[in-house]
Amino acid sequence: MELNLRDKSVLITGGGAGIGKAIAFEFLNEGAKVSICDISEAKLKKTQEEAASCGFNLDIYQIDVTEKEQLEAMAEQIVQKNGRLDVWINNAGVDLHHTVLDFPIEDYDRIMKTNVYAVFEGCRVAGKYMIAQGDGGVIINASSYTVNIPHTRGSVYAASKAAVSSFTKSIAANFAPYGIRVVGYQPGMVETEMTKEMCARNHELYIQNVALGRLGKPEDIAKPVVFLASDACGYITGLDIEVAGGKYRVQDTRYSWEHKV
User: Would you kindly state where each structural domain of the chain is located, as residue ranges?
Assistant: First the structure.
């Protein structure tokens, strides 16, 4: 299937590692002009070098997504270089675990500013450029499976992602008259550099309710995200796509594996 993403101008926040990095490489494989931003300069340079070794040009921007002025300056630079902005992916996020009574207000503020405020401002910055272009665009927001079932020590993270899912619906309606689609994705438990140790320690616990019987990989999320950005999904807006391996689709997922013939 031709996704028609060649030469599209794409920005991915939190693109220095993990899911964001995988998304960037999927777009590069489709021939898009890809930019990534991250708060870590070291991660950005490492990913840029890896892209170069594969024959790709990857533009990098070291910014803090919670600073509106930095988002705006980055968007302006991307448009000046590529001539336009076609796809904006709000992928950056933070997850800090505490019980409710022990949750430091500083961590609450950090989660909300990174996961909610930065997404809201990212949508607005991207929307302004896409409206001015006059021929549409796509904004994609990272939600989470925890919107459906939160975990005990991640109450604030789950709440922040519920806000993102709600934003996706309402912002999609706001931007629809301009031909701009707004969609989201809900990853399940994904093995990344950040979660590697935790996934190894709790592997059996994590997969026992996943129908496909394994944890996700960044590429499992990246491919559907790129598909959502394509013309093939031109009639999809205002919703999240769950990418979680059939997590909790039934109560006894291990039964099928134990009785596999």
Answer: 9-190+218-251
Helices 118-133, 68-82: crossing angle, 10 deg rounding: 30
Distance CA(148)–CA(161), nearest Å, equals 10
157 is catalytic: yes
From 157, 178, 185, 248, the catalytic residue: 157
Sheet holding 9-13, edge to edge: 58-62, 33-38, 9-13, 87-90, 137-142, 180-187, 240-243
- Per-residue pLDDT tens over the stretch 208-230: 999 999 999 999 999 999 999 99
Q: Tens of pLDDT along 129-140?
A: 999 999 999 999
pTM score = 0.96
β-pair partners for 242: 186
- Does the domain at residues 9-190+218-251 carry the CATH identifier 3.90.1210.10? no
Q: What is the Cα–Cα distance from 178 to 104, expressed in whole angstroms?
A: 41
Which of 44, 153, 57 has its CA nearest to residue 92? 44
